[in-house]
Amino acid sequence: MSEEFVACHDCDLVHRIPVGQEGRSGRCIRCGGVLFNEKRNSVERTLALAVAGAVLFVVANVFPFLSFDMQGRVTETTLLSGVRELWNQDMGSISFLVLITAVVAPGMQLLLLLYILVPAHLGRAPHQLSLCLRLLRRFEAWSMMEVFLIGIFVALVKLGDLADIVPGPAIFSFAILILVLAGAAATFDRRGLWRLVPVSA
Amino acid sequence: MSAPESADSIAGHTARSLGMVSCHECGLLVRADPEGGLACPRCHVRLHSRKIDSLSRCWALLLAAAVLYVPANVFPIMTTTYFGAAQSDTIMSGVIYLMQTEWPLAVIVFTASVMVPLVKLFVLAYLAWSVRVGSTSNPGDRTRLFRVIDAIGRWSMVDIYVVTILVALVRVQALANVHAEIGAVFFGAVVVTTILAAQAFDPRLIWDSAEAAQARKEARASAEAGGLPNGNLA
Ligand SMILES: [Zn+2]
Ligand SMILES: [Zn+2]
Predict the structure, then answer these.
(1) Fewer CB atoms inside 10 Å of the end CB: C or N, chain B?
(2) Ligand nearest to the CA of B43
């Protein structure tokens, strides 16, 4: 069993933590912040979720998630059509914000997970791992798909008495994708992957 | 056991008090360079013991968010045209509309759009103030409060997404359409600035200022008890 020293992210208190003991996690004794979280088969489980997530993400973006039927005139909406319509209405800033938080950030999150975990699963350190782990954290912070799902429910209620709203296939992949992303975040062992990056003397 | 001899003398102290820095990107614990300006030997980012200018950046972003909060709530976020009749909605009128149909959803939207940004503003301002005055009370509770505030900020995006979906869905030429309005831009700016304000705040400052205040108090107490004037020690 090996050990290393880490400082709590939220209060700077130094702790001695075990390394390479799957299934163990630890919190800061002073403020309760998460210090480490080594899930069993973390790489394989997270990779499986990332693969499922990537498929669901494509489905969620290609197919409409709602269609609106008013007296026989049907409009359908995908994630990107909302972004495009806002752009057409000269709402560039909002359009950009939605594009980043609902499409780019979750998409990049899944891509980076795949890029990092496939070689890690094969026992190799991915090229540019350090950069990828840093980028991943940025995109995670701005990925807000679960909030978008609540937005869909609110929109459904608001339009309920105007017209017939039919949920499209994307809405289901959307809902599952959110669970998959949450699962991937829970099984991902960031500290373990950082250990694959060599420390220069 | 590969742990160094001094294991027990390191654990239980703060990295800063040991002259060490925890890399904010990769979490590696590094002995700090007394000259400063050291790069992390693992991920090569510039190391700093605490977030740079944490409090002043946090205050500036909070001030911006507070200013933006007013037009975000006063101006309409969207206009719905339905068979020639146009109706503009603010954040609040949207909540009132939902209250008449689906009150549980109204509660969610009210919490996400109205309460979360306000609570975030006040709590972050309180935390930044408590650091400034060197409060020693319950640093653990204040740290947990920060973690909650940091986690809930994203939920304010709900109304932005609702506008996005309605704009994309309701476009039956002149019959029915939805236009996004300037209030949505201000509201989006409030969400982004409060998220950035939370990112700028460094919760380790809560512990630093509490420890500094505690040390001052103990020094004063021992000086009074032992009759040793503090000034002579320096
Ligand atoms: Zn801690
Ligand atoms: Zn580093």
Answers:
(1) C
(2) 2
Which ligand approaches the C-alpha of residue B22 most closely? 2
- Do residue B60 and residue B169 come from a single domain? yes
Q: How many CB atoms lie within 10 A of CB B115?
A: 14
CB nearest B204 (choices: A6, A12, A155): A12
Provide the number of structural domains found in chain B: 2
Residues of chain B positioned with their CB less than 8 A from the CB of A181: none
- From CA A131, how far away is CA B44, in angstroms rounded? 10
Residues B77 and B168 in one domain: yes
**B62 and B16 assigned to the same domain:** no
In this prediction the pTM is 0.91
Q: Which of A75, A159, A161 sits opposite B171 (nearest CB)?
A: A75
Q: What ipTM was estimated for this complex? A: 0.93
Tens-digit pLDDT profile for chain B (234 aa)? Answer: 334 445 556 777 899 999 999 999 999 999 887 666 788 999 999 999 999 999 999 999 999 999 999 999 999 999 998 888 899 999 999 899 888 888 888 998 999 999 999 999 999 999 999 999 999 889 999 999 999 999 999 999 999 999 999 999 888 777 788 999 999 999 999 999 999 999 999 999 999 999 888 888 889 988 888 755 554 443
> Which residue segment(s) compose the domain that B15 sits in?
11-49
What letter represents residue A85's amino acid?
Answer: E
DSSP A100: I
Query: Do the beta carbons of residue A135 and residue A108 sit within 8 Å?
Result: yes
